Amino acid sequence: MNKKNYTKWWVLWIVVIVFAGGWFLFGSKKNPSYDFDKQQSDLYQQALNDWVEKQKKDTYGGNTPQETWNMFIDALEKGDVELASKYFVVGKQDAWIANLKNIKKNNQLDFMISDLSENYKLTGYTKANDFRYVKKDDGIVIAEVVLVLNEYTNKWKIESL
User: Fold this and answer.
1) Separation of alpha carbons 98 and 86, rounded Å
2) Is the pLDDT assigned to residue 32 strictly greater than 70?
3) pTM more than 0.85
4) Considering its fold, how many domains does the chain have in total?
């Protein structure tokens, strides 16, 4: 056997061994990182599905930003802080119920209502599903309220206050 043929056979055997080793390591067994990635993907998909369901069930809010704002102020004026918290986006409702209960407990609800109902001016849409109210002092914005559209229910929600 000449040297050229001998080299070809060795290269062929090395290729066969590399493929066989790759199949043994990755093809014949389930790759453990695949299981972890699949599990993480499934958890993410479940969390996303849960979030979408919560969005679809959240029917509190108005058909316009102004209507939601008025409903929020009206709930505060009635002292119904639980209802008022429902006008916030789903992910912030729990925090806001606690904040509003604390404000009410400290007898600051009337001050909050007065501040929110008298000093905020509409600025309009800043993008398709985003609306802002601002409070200015000498032309400088000192506070802002952002409302966003829940696209699953077409209700406007308070995003930040």
Assistant:
1) 12
2) no
3) no
4) 1
